[in-house]
Design a protein that fits this description.
The complex is a heterodimer.
Chain A (H helix, E strand, L loop, with lengths): L29 E5 L7 E7 L2 E11 L13 E8 L14 H14 L12 E10 L4 H15 L9 E8 L2 E4 L3 H6 L2 E8 L4 E5 L2 E2 L3 H31 L11
Parallel strand pairs in A: 4-5
Antiparallel strand pairs in A: 1-2, 2-3, 3-5, 6-7, 6-8, 8-9, 8-10
Chain B lengths: L8 H5 L1 H9 L15 E5 L7 E7 L2 E12 L10 E8 L14 H16 L9 E3 L3 E13 L4 H14 L2 E6 L7 E8 L7 E8 L2 E4 L3 H6 L2 E7 L5 E7 L6 H26 L4
Parallel strand pairs in B: 4-6
Antiparallel strand pairs in B: 1-2, 2-3, 3-6, 5-6, 7-8, 9-10, 9-11, 11-12
Helix pairs in contact in B: 3-4, 4-6
Chain lengths: 251, 275
């Protein structure tokens, strides 16, 4: 394990702890709530480190415009959006190119888990709203959206769980946060269907050699599986437990 | 898209029942005509924003965040800071909301809220100047509607005001001939008064306070008044194509003053504001 010099050395200290005190294979604190929005057919809130994200599902519903309907399955539509106050500098509320790309990869990450063929000629809308962003918002958004889809009662093969790994100060770490993403050398977000271990999202930016890639990939997979446990617990808590969902207002 | 769809079939069918109840001084959800839903205000919910608040008014839910940056003043007001209030009905807020730029009713909502804050002089914009004509604070309040169930005006107003009350802005170091330098020190916004909106809907012959989405679906007209804590009315807006009598306007104005006081107490408490 090479010790990186210069500024990035501070990202991981002598004891092997990261800026926020995590070990290299540790996730940020995660909280998931199910059924937080009254009007939506399904909804979820996720707090993933400093990320605060709401996801809502509407549908299956009639498709507008009509010609975009498919005869054999439902049309899945996703919108990932960041609130203007979610970032250090105010973000223009109009969708950016980044948000449009992320909307697309989120849709493609969720679609394999959904039995869209059960709802021909309909649309299912998934809205992911980032109220506060902290690096890894697409992963947190996917995890929340998949819980919201389950809450909406859409037929699913599996949940979708997502987590990133990356390279920071020369070391491979699990779940890259905002500072690490900006200062670090690589970011590898993935999403999986945990029961079948199928990968439904993979992106990479930054440089990793063979060995590093495999280590990062395994870290990310491990992170996804831990997220999956929390997703399950949240859903079980709402439907079989005594916490009836609706949040008390504390974000 | 519009915050409330105008022709909700089921609500139209309930209109008869609603009228019968109104004649007895009652409403579908059991409230009296001049009774508001429970208002909950939580502040500092978004750490990255300089100020923020989440507001629940019955099932209506909104979140407001304040971002502050350096800006250039308008040429005609070189001695005033910038203050902009915007609102957006997020598509996750209602089955009738759709992605896209704000439509006319959402723009009206943001502008009425903006007028209340601006015209009341809630923020002393004269104190938001770093160098006249060149550098001023630009205060952006963005309000996202998370769940639509009527009376967005009052919810957005409460969230905007609560978020501003909790706002801390960075202090800038000013040196001659140099750009302002951001320091770690934070200062509060110069607050002068606390303006809040109170909205009533006319359904047939009756005025009701704090209408729900199903009441808004059948209302003939809407009237909003913003009052401050010095007993002034500082903004008003009549909405929809129906009309209001002089007596109804008078009732709405006096109700706004009375109920505004109660809302102010809740907002101040939620924002942890002490003068």
């Amino acid at each position: 394990m090479g010790k990186a010099g210069g500024d990035s050395a501070a990202l991981i200290n002598e004891q092997g702890l990261r800026l926020d005190g995590r070990r290299i294979d540790e996730l940020r604190p995660i909280r998931i709530e199910v059924g937080i929005l009254r009007n939506a057919d399904g909804s979820a809130y996720i707090q993933f480190g400093k990320n605060k994200i709401m996801a809502a599902v509407y549908g299956p519903k009639e498709v507008h415009p009509k010609h975009s309907a498919l005869p054999d399955k439902s049309v899945l539509r996703c919108r990932y959006h960041m609130s203007p106050f979610s970032t250090e500098e105010r973000k223009n509320p109009a969708p950016s190119r980044r948000e449009i790309e992320i909307s697309k990869v989120i849709r493609e990450a969720l679609e394999p888990a959904l039995m869209l063929e059960d709802y021909p000629r309909t649309a299912i809308d998934v809205f992911v709203e980032v109220l506060q962003s902290d690096g890894g918002s697409r992963c947190a958004g996917i995890s929340a959206a998949s819980v919201a889809l389950a809450d909406a009662g859409i037929n699913m093969r599996d949940l979708v769980s997502a987590c990133a790994a990356g390279k920071v100060a020369g070391q491979i770490v699990m779940d890259v946060d905002d500072t690490e993403d900006k200062e670090g050398q690589a970011d590898l977000p993935i999403a999986i269907m945990p029961m079948s271990s199928q990968v439904t999202l993979l992106q990479l930016d930054g440089q990793l050699n063979d060995e590093e890639f495999h280590k990062a990939f395994n870290f990310a997979l491990d992170g996804c599986r831990r997220v999956y446990q929390l997703q399950r617990e949240a859903l079980i808590g709402k439907y079989f437990g005594n916490n009836g969902g609706n949040s008390d207002g504390g974000l | 898209m519009s915050a409330v769809k105008k022709t909700l079939v089921v609500e139209q069918l309930k209109r008869g029942q609603m009228n019968e109840l109104l004649a007895k001084g009652k409403r579908l959800d059991g409230r009296g005509l001049l009774e508001a839903r429970e208002l909950k205000v939580f502040s500092n919910v978004i750490e990255k924003a300089e100020g923020s608040a989440r507001v629940m008014l019955g099932n209506t839910e909104v979140i407001a965040g304040v971002k502050v940056s350096l800006g250039t003043p308008f040429p005609d007001t070189p001695d005033k800071g910038l203050l902009v209030v915007s609102a957006e009905v997020l598509p996750l807020a209602s089955p009738y909301a759709e992605p896209g730029p704000p439509d006319e009713s959402t723009i009206e909502l943001a502008r009425v809220t903006d007028r209340g804050v601006r015209e009341s002089g809630m923020i002393d914009v004269g104190k938001l100047v770093l160098r006249e004509g060149k550098w001023v604070y630009a205060v952006f309040v963005d309000v996202s509607i998370l769940n639509v169930d009527g009376n967005l005006f009052d919810a957005v107003s409460a969230a905007t005001v609560a978020a501003l009350l909790t706002t801390n802005v960075p202090k800038y170091e000013m040196k001659e001939g140099e750009e302002p330098k951001k320091t770690e020190e934070k200062i509060r916004l110069p607050i002068q008064t606390i303006p809040l909106a109170v909205t009533m809907a006319r359904i047939g012959d009756y005025l009701v306070l704090d209408p729900t989405a199903e009441e808004e679906a059948v209302m003939d007209a809407r009237i909003t008044f913003v009052t401050d804590d010095r007993g002034n009315i500082c903004a008003g807006q009549k909405g929809l194509s129906g009309s209001l009598s002089v007596d109804q306007i008078t009732l709405a104005a006096s109700t706004a003053k009375l109920k505004g006081e109660q809302v102010r107490a809740i907002v101040k408490q939620g924002a942890g504001y002490v003068q």
